[in-house]
Amino acid sequence: DNTIMCWDIGGKEDEGKRLFIARGHDATVTCIYSDDIKLISGSADKSIIIWNKDTGEMIRRVVGHSRGILCIQSGPTWCVSGGTDGDIFVWENRDHHDDPAYKSFKYKHRLRCPKCKITAIQFGQLEIISGDNHGWVSIWWIKTSENMRRCQAHHGPVTGLQFDATRVVSCGNDKNVQVIDIITGQILQTLRGHKAPVTAVVFDSKMILSSSVDGILRQWMWGSKSSCGRGDKIHTFQVGETLPNLSQKYDVAIPDIFKWNGIADTKKMYQGQKLIVRKGNTDLPTAAELAAQKKSQRKQERESRVLGMNMKDGHNLTTTVETALLGTVHPNINREILISSHLEIDQENIISSNMVEGSWGMSLASRLCRIQSDSTKKSTTKLHSD
Question: Could you give the CA distance from residue 308 to residue 34 in angstroms, rounded to a whole number?
């Protein structure tokens, strides 16, 4: 009905009492957020309305999105909103005491995500984390409006998320909760258990709480693999900084910074990247170290399989060559010479599976011709000696 209702759920006497009805939107109210000072809402009518949180009186109405608004979050001097148009607006205003009518409320940055709908959003001092209807979680650098990293976290819309210095926790319509490394963008863990879409998620240093439309609130305890909660020192990489600077500042070796954070190329480092510059527990590997160990293990397994296949193929190829050499013999070629010549074939060429079939054929034909020529010369020499 396009309205917002406020209820008192505090005392027993007034429990369930409706305090006010806020009217002002022209279409469905799709998102709402309240802080200590104000109430703010977004609607399918493309507008944002700021309300007095005590009386429900409309203070100001602003527009900017070209389509309906799906998610919103606000603070004392800022607000972020995401809509079905794929846009994220970062709004700013002066302090409430200096501007009670919010006349200074205006958008400062516009972040664009083409062909998607922004379904969840979280604001940080330097970055914004968003989720969309395709299941992607994106990390945005506010100052430059750059999309620094994306992760396919869910199959379907992202419905909620929260983040800290090293990780993002998100939930979605696919009934899962995902823990994502904010530095690498890799999914660290998938939490399954809900039987219906998960609508909200929050976490602290001890646990994750998630709620679902199945009416269940689930509690998940952090495991030991997480970087947070171990006391790791995190640094936010800024423009103009270098790894030697960080090494000197935090008294840490540059190779350790590379290893702890999985840095393969310094040219791919970006402003706002979270770097572990001191490990809280030296015995526990970071997420990047675990990923590197798994990658190295997979590489060794692949090499072992390839080596085993090459040895098997080399044996089969040797057998095939012997059969070809001994099975198709020219009448004038002495079989003993042919066998002797075959034994001189470079074993490395026999085992190699990279040799082009035509080249091998030419090599074999040339050897047969050379053997035939040698056999003819020996026959001629024998006739002359007779």
Answer: 64
Give the separation between CA 54 and CA 301, rounded to whole angstroms. Answer: 65
Show the tokens assigned to 73.
């979050």
Map tokens 């999105």 to a residue.
65
C-alpha span between 26 and 3 (Å, rounded): 9
Strands across the sheet with 136-141, in order? Answer: 118-123, 127-132, 136-141, 146-152
Pairing relation of β-strands 29-34 and 207-212?
A: unpaired
Distance separating alpha carbons of residues 148 and 28, to the nearest angstrom: 33
Interval 18-28 mean pLDDT? 93
Nearest-CA neighbor of 353 among 384, 318, 301, 304?
A: 318
CA distance 285 to 224: 10
What CA–CA distance (Å, rounded) separates 280 from 227? 9
Three-class DSSP category at 294: helix
The DSSP letter of residue 136 is E
Residue found by looking up tokens 């100001």 in the block: 60
Judged against a pLDDT cut of 60, whether residue 224 lies above it is answered with: no
User: Please, are residues 113 and 150 in contact by the beta-carbon 8 Å criterion?
Assistant: no
pLDDT level of residue 11 (50, 70, 90 thresholds): low
- Residue 219 corresponds to which tokens in the numbers above? 């509690």
For the stretch 10-19, contacts whose Cβ atoms lie closer than 8 Å and that sit 24 or more positions apart, written own/partner, are 19/56
